[in-house]
Amino acid sequence: MSLSPNRSRIVYFGLSFITILSGLLSRSTLIMLPDFISTYAGDTFWALIVFFIICTIFPRWKTKNITIAALLFAFGIEFSQFYHAPWIEELRHIKIGGLILGFGFKLSDLVCYTVGVSLGFVIDLYLISKVKLSQL
């Protein structure tokens, strides 16, 4: 019988914070990044943040379930960009609303979200396996 992981909310909150800073930095003019990275890193970090936030909120969920939830949320937000009612457009024009909801559908964003959530999956498995090994 496999037990659900027991993640540290503090660790995953910290990872979320670091990832948010990294994502914002990847879109800033403070550092010069290659075009490929500056174009796609922000969306990849965004999905990684979603993964870590779900880990923070639901620390006992299995990694597989967190991965599915993060992908569904990220893809749902991307597909919501086909919807342009006035109220949601107003939200998108507030800085935080634009960062969360985005502005227009891009297939490349779905690829970035898949990479970001996959990265979260690998990090989570590594952290969980380190905890299990240290408990032996």
What does this structure look like?
By secondary structure, the protein is an all-alpha fold. It has one domain (9-134). It is built from 6 helices and no strands. Helix 1 packs antiparallel against helix 2 (35-57) and helix 3 packs antiparallel against helix 6 (107-134). The relative contact order is 0.16. The mean pLDDT is 88.
Task: Determine the number of helices (DSSP H or I, runs of at least 4 residues).
Answer: 6
User: What is the end-to-end distance?
Assistant: 17 Å
The chain-level structural class is mainly alpha
Strand and helix order? HHHHHH
User: What percent of residues are in strands?
Assistant: under 5%
Q: Please state the overall shape, judged from the principal axes of the Cα atoms.
A: globular
Query: Which stretches are poorly predicted, pLDDT < 50 over at least 5 residues?
Result: none
* Strands, total number: 0
**What does the average pLDDT come to?**
88
Radius of gyration: 16 Å
The number of domains is 1
Helix amount:
over 70%
Main beta-sheet strand count, sense and barrel state: none
Secondary-structure blueprint of this entry?
Elements: H1 9-26, H2 35-57, H3 63-79, H4 86-92, H5 95-101, H6 107-134
Helix pairs in contact: 1-2, 2-3, 2-6, 3-6
